[in-house]
Amino acid sequence: MTWNPEQYHRHREARSAPVRDLMAMIPALPYRDVVDLGCGTGEHTRALAERFRDAQVLGLDSSTEMLAQADASGLPGLRFGRGDILDLAGDYDLMFSNAALQWLPDHPALLARLWERLRPGGVLAVQVPANHDHDSHRLLTETANEFAAELGGFTRFGTAHGASPVLTPAQYAEVLDELGGVEIVALSRVYPVVLPGAEGLLDWTRGTALVPYLSRLGERDGERFVAAYLDRLRSRWPGERVYYAFTRVLFTARKPG
Ligand SMILES: C[S@@+](CC[C@H](N)C(=O)[O-])C[C@H]1O[C@@H](n2cnc3c(N)ncnc32)[C@H](O)[C@@H]1O
Known about the structure:
Layout: H1 5-9, H2 12-25, E1 33-37, H3 43-51, E2 56-61, H4 64-67, E3 78-82, E4 92-98, H5 107-116, E5 118-129, H6 135-146, H7 148-151, H8 169-178, E6 182-195, H9 197-206, H10 211-214, H11 219-236, E7 242-254
Parallel strand pairs: 1-2, 1-4, 2-3, 4-5
Antiparallel strand pairs: 5-7, 6-7
Bound molecules: S-adenosylmethionine (SAM).
């Protein structure tokens, strides 16, 4: 997938509230090795390195485009690396991930895998968007179905109706308990974003949800796809203001030890 850092950061302010909440949920412990999974352009990885000055902090991402903007300067413990979250190596005592794990399937299996890389006493802290039931996503899946031939039948979550891998807070809590986690906190919160009409909503999704579709389409089909999606958004939100009730799930847990 080809990410566009400029497009993603057009809504930086709206996307910063949930990560502030996630940061506040991290217990103040003397972490030695920290990893930011799906770090993107690395601002939150830097914030972690500034907060945990004695730690070695790794920002891991699979996107060359995003990593090209990551800045490790002035912080000796901070580094960035290209790789897949599924191939994570090493052991960590803080595993952090903001708005990235929703791109990976089967979260019970994924968390079990990450848990193995967490040292005893370590903390896992995750935020994922849980917005898949929102009309903006339903209409995106509808558009993908219309373009099934061009997309080779691809939809974001691999099924015709687009089921999401993201679980409820209660389900995450149960998975973490099964793994032996303690001090489990799991919650969901609405972070509203007010956008200027259907075009504003399109601009928001361009930075994230549209990425896997546009990455698979050529320029012409991509433009047709965007126009067909925008038509649907305009029918659903004909006015000049869209109140986008964006739901996210946040959770933290500690491994005993
Ligand atoms: C929405 S961005 C979030 C970036 C950053 N964490 C933030 O909060 O600004 C999602 C990031 O996850 C990365 N990503 C998605 N799947 C990945 C995978 N399997 N392995 C590594 N990175 C992945 C993407 O490349 C992208 O940079």
